[in-house]
Write a structure and sequence with these properties.
beta-galactosidase, domain 3, 32% strand, TIM Barrel, binds beta-D-galactopyranose, mainly beta, Jelly Rolls, single chain
């Protein structure tokens, strides 16, 4: 299709922005998983520092339209600050507002009330389309306003997500009328940027030219290692017939068969994993998708000239509140390059990404080269090494080498036979051989221009290069102790100006340099070019910021090389650099006292300001500035949580004889539209039929006993790892503690002797662990209910006692109480309904009692305590984590909900795990004053339940140049008139 505007266009090679070729290197971030808007800039800066130029983001419909017809995107849900932060950083955005997103969120994006829609979801059935209408009209308007055509950062729009595969099989294609409807809505709302799709794999749905619903640009997603992260070192065998064909298929030629007129694009490539409850930890996911994974897999995509490349996730954040679907736990760290608590350098995968993205950024020839098929025995005689060529025409050729068996851990020697413009050559020319160390992949360049100097080839990989006022700087690196060789077309003799161990020879017009990578740097000068030779780990210390003034954000053009920016060696993170008159301003983070070397400072600049303070520097003989940064360790005290002034309240008053539920909604719907229709019970006992979509549901079943009741059969459903507890008056009948495999549980409880004619109440708690997603079309799995699906209270002779039911979830249901924290922050427990989880609850209603002592029988306790913090957060980034001790022998089986300043920030299940640590960002925590910590303790089984230990820890604080974090002030407790 033709572009609807002329700023963002495309051809078969890449996007063009303002007519200029750009590779889009992007990472996924969900603003809703970091509910502190002032931290969005922090995340963008960390992404931009990698050399990325884009971020893609989902919008989670359920948070914006908690009640059908009432769209609201304010406070922490306002996207405007997200757009502004992107613009401020120089990051383009790819908008992915659904309506379906998957994303491990409850309902896969759909609000709970969608369960009541009487038609197949994700089709053009009028009821379903109508249900999406209000959301789409609003969100598209918000997105349209922020498009690049209006001066905003948004360059692409993805309609829906993975609209690919039907429960009825592959040959039952998705409903094109629905895709067309979503796109029409976008266009009606003023979306003019190109439409890019996200097929669940290279299934070829909606390719351009395919008719109804077709996309402008075809893209798909790929997770070659799946989502569980057990055995991080054990890379699975990947074969074409498993569908995970990343490393066995020539991706470029399959792309050319599938969508020859659009750039090769992957809108989600594995950047971590999303394990289930009881599954692996995110640290294991980070290991599974570590720097070696990035080298082998991402460079394989680069070998196919990927031109729109989005990594899912680059920063995962937290599934706070009741955002998560039942298949996932509270953390959404994802094992991503940037950790949930914002740390960057703990995982080497962050630094590895920087080496790749910075390289592409300075290699405009990359998008001009033509990928060939992968070869073994052609460019390298050793068939254990596969080389994929990308041939350029004087603008750079790229030869991507890796092990043929991609999981090979051997160290393999090889030589390269490269067809240079000057003829074929066998490399290394000065003797010896190259090595590929295990799970590695290298991009060897040939005929690669560095401004007006021609690099004939380099086996060492390029990190970056820059044209400065009076010199060029090229930084190359290699793995430790590897032999590398580089050849340059020049008539002058290269000069070793720093370091040792570089062999230099010349043949006619070519100077050849060979060295073994070591941890000390060498610099070779050839004409005005200075080649910095590093090992990979040293390259990680270099930063190549764009100048902030570059609002056009074009990021891989040769023009950029002429810009007066700088290269910085030695900071923990460089966030931004700007020049104003004679002053160089740097915003950076430091984790130790460091020497900061600044290369390429323009002559007109004479002053250095780092994080608002002027700093002295000396000028080295090569003109670089050298400044000493003093790191003063931050002083802080970690509060001991067991000694806080804890207060306790019984949060299950429902089982007391005096409890009055007259204000509770009656459960009286005689029908349901969910997947378990028709009802097996006289009335629906499903939360979503009554507007309750989050957290614990409570049911009260009233009956008059016949006296002969002996057994209660009850089936409850709450999704993977859910729990339920049943009480008869105040007698505990039993619980289902939950396990990962069970989402519906049939339980039988013995009923004690009842008195004929007496009134009794059954109180049933069901943990809605999050609605299911709806990845499979025609499955309507999102409509899988939560609540009681069947019950019978019967006698030995088979007579059944009828019950009348009441139900509650969060107070108000879809008319939820807390507008600031949104529709998915509260569940149906008494303390939550009353709002006692909010800051400054009425302590007069509480008793003294601590979660460290716990309760002695099944039930629900709620604890609250104030916590003072006094941390110097203007100057330091101090990541805080709450840690549960995993010790079920001491604790009993329990579920805990951690609430910080009213934000439900984590769920802990003592006998399932795996999560025990819960990072809570500054901004949710107030680092300079009062905080309120709430803790729900749901004791599941007879005997004591307590939190054996709950601690705070601080991980790797750094001195920071980030903008101050604003505390999200979402309000304190206020008496809720209607609370019951
Ligand atoms: C993709 C999906 C994402 C997310 C991911 C797994 O298929 O598009 O939304 O669910 O899988 O983390």
């Amino acid at each position: 299709m033709k572009p609807l505007q002329n700023i963002i266009t495309w051809d078969e090679k890449s996007l063009l922005i303002h007519g200029e070729r750009v590779m889009i290197w992007s990472g996924e971030v969900h603003p809703f998983r970091l509910p502190v808007p002032s931290l969005w800039l922090d995340v963008f800066q960390k992404i931009k520092a990698l050399g990325f130029n884009a971020v893609s983001f989902y919008v989670y419909w359920a948070l914006l339209e908690g009640k059908q017809g009432r769209f609201s995107a304010e406070g922490i849900f306002d996207l405007e600050p997200f757009f502004q932060a992107a613009t401020e950083t120089g990051i383009y955005l790819i908008a992915r507002p659904g309506p379906y997103i998957n994303a491990e969120v409850a309902g896969g994006g759909f609000p709970g009330w969608i369960q009541r829609v009487n038609s197949t979801l994700r089709t053009s059935a009028p009821e379903f389309e109508a249900a999406t209408d209000n959301y789409l009209s609003h969100i598209y308007k918000i997105i349209a306003k922020a498009q690049i055509t209006n001066g905003g950062p948004i360059i692409l729009l993805q309609p829906d997500n993975e609209f690919t595969y039907s429960a009825r099989g592959f040959y039952h294609p998705p409903d094109p009328a629905f895709m067309q409807y979503v796109e029409d809505k976008a266009h009606q709302a003023g979306i003019v940027v190109p439409i890019i799709g996200n097929d669940a794999w290279a299934a070829g749905r909606f390719v351009p030219g395919s008719g109804k619903g077709e996309w402008d640009i075809y893209a798909y997603d790929q997770y070659p290692f799946g989502f569980e992260c057990n055995d991080p070192q054990g890379w699975p065998t990947i074969s074409a017939d498993t569908g995970s064909s990343t490393l066995t298929t020539d991706l470029y030629s399959s792309h050319m068969r599938q969508s020859p007129s659009t750039p090769f694009s992957i809108l989600e490539f594995q950047g971590g994993g999303s394990p289930p409850w009881g599954g692996s930890s995110y640290d294991q996911c980070a290991l599974k998708t570590n720097q070696e994974f990035e080298r082998v897999f991402y460079k394989n995509l680069l070998a196919s000239r990927i031109a729109i490349f989005n990594i899912y996730m680059i920063f995962g954040g937290t599934s706070w509140g009741y955002i998560s679907y039942a298949g996932g736990y509270s953390s959404y760290d994802y094992g991503a390059a940037i950790e949930e608590d914002g740390r960057t350098l703990v995982r080497e995968k962050y630094s590895e990404l920087k080496t790749q993205a910075q390289f592409i950024k300075v290699s405009p020839g990359y998008l001009e080269a033509t990928p060939g098929n992968m070869t073994a025995g052609v460019y390298s005689q050793n068939t254990d090494v596969t080389v994929t060529p990308m041939t350029g025409n004087g603008t750079g050729s790229f030869f991507v080498a890796r092990h043929t068996d991609y999981s090979n851990l051997n160290s393999t020697n090889y030589t390269l036979q490269l067809p240079l413009s000057s003829g074929n050559v066998s490399i290394p020319q000065l003797g010896g051989s190259l090595t590929l160390n295990g799970r590695d992949s290298k991009i060897h360049v040939a005929d690669y221009p560095i401004g007006d100097i021609m690099l004939r080839y380099s086996t060492a990989e390029i990190f970056t290069w820059k044209q400065f006022e009076d010199k060029k700087v090229l930084i190359v690196y290699g793995g430790s102790s590897e032999l590398h060789e580089m050849a340059i077309l020049t008539l002058s003799n290269p000069l070793l100006v720093e370091g040792t161990g570089v062999k230099i020879e010349r043949f006619g017009t070519t100077a050849i340099m060979q060295w073994k990578t070591s941890s000390s740097r060498s610099i070779v000068q050839i004409d005005d070019l200075f080649v910095y030779i590093l090992d990979r780990v040293s390259a990680y210390d270099y930063w190549v910021p764009d100048l902030l003034a570059d609002k056009k954000m074009v990021s891989n053009s040769t023009a950029l090389q002429g810009q007066a920016s700088v290269i910085i060696n030695g900071a923990y993170l460089v966030r931004s650099v700007s020049i104003d008159k004679n002053c160089l301003f740097i915003k950076a983070d430091f984790n130790s006292s460091s020497t900061m070397e600044i290369i390429g400072v323009p002559k007109s600049v004479s002053k250095l300001v780092v994080n608002d303070g002027e700093i002295n520097f000396s000028t080295a003989s090569d003109g670089s500035w050298v400044a000493q940064i003093q790191y003063t360790p931050v002083e802080f005290r970690i509060p001991v949580l067991s000694s806080l002034n804890w207060k306790y309240m019984d949060s299950l008053p429902e089982i007391q004889p005096s409890y009055d539920d007259s204000q509770w909604p009656a459960a009286d719907h005689a029908y349901t539209n969910n997947t378990l229709a028709p009802l097996r019970t006289p009335v629906s006992l499903y939360g979503s039929d009554y507007g309750f979509h989050s957290g614990v549901l409570i049911f009260r079943g009233h009956f008059i006993a016949s006296g002969s009741e002996s057994l209660l059969n009850i089936s409850t459903m709450g999704g993977s790892a859910f729990a339920s507890s049943v009480f008869l008056n105040n007698t505990f009948l039993g619980s289902w503690p939950g396990d990962v495999a069970t989402s519906i549980k049939a339980s039988n409880y013995k009923v004690p002797k009842l008195y004929p004619g007496e009134s009794y109440v059954l109180t049933v708690l069901v943990d809605n662990n999050g609605n299911d997603a709806n990845w499979l079309l025609d499955s309507d799995s999102m409509k899988n209910p939560r609540g009681i699906i069947d019950y019978s209270l019967s006698s030995q002779t088979g007579s059944v006692t009828p019950l009348t039911w009441k139900i509650t979830g969060n107070l108000g249901g879809e008319d939820y109480m807390d507008q600031e924290r949104g529709p998915l922050n509260e569940g149906g427990l008494f303390a939550e309904r009353q709002g006692y989880h909010l800051p400054r609850p009425p302590l007069c209603k509480f008793k003294v009692g601590s979660p460290f002592d716990g309760i002695e029988k099944p039930g629900v306790a709620f604890y609250t305590a104030p916590l003072e913090l006094d941390y110097p957060s203007q100057k330091y980034d101090i990541p805080i984590t709450f840690n549960f001790e995993n010790n079920t022998e001491v604790s009993g089986k329990y579920r805990a909900i951690l609430i910080v300043n009213g934000f439900t920030f984590g769920k802990y299940i003592s006998h399932i795990g795996p999560q025990t640590s819960y990072p809570v960002p500054e901004g949710i925590l107030n680092y300079g004053g009062e905080n309120w910590i709430g803790l729900v303790l749901w004791s599941i089984e007879p005997g004591w339940a307590k939190v054996p230990n709950l601690t705070l820890s601080v991980k790797n604080p750094v001195m920071t140049g980030r903008k101050p974090v604003e505390v999200v002030n979402a309000g304190c407790w206020d008496r809720r008139q209607l609370a019951y």
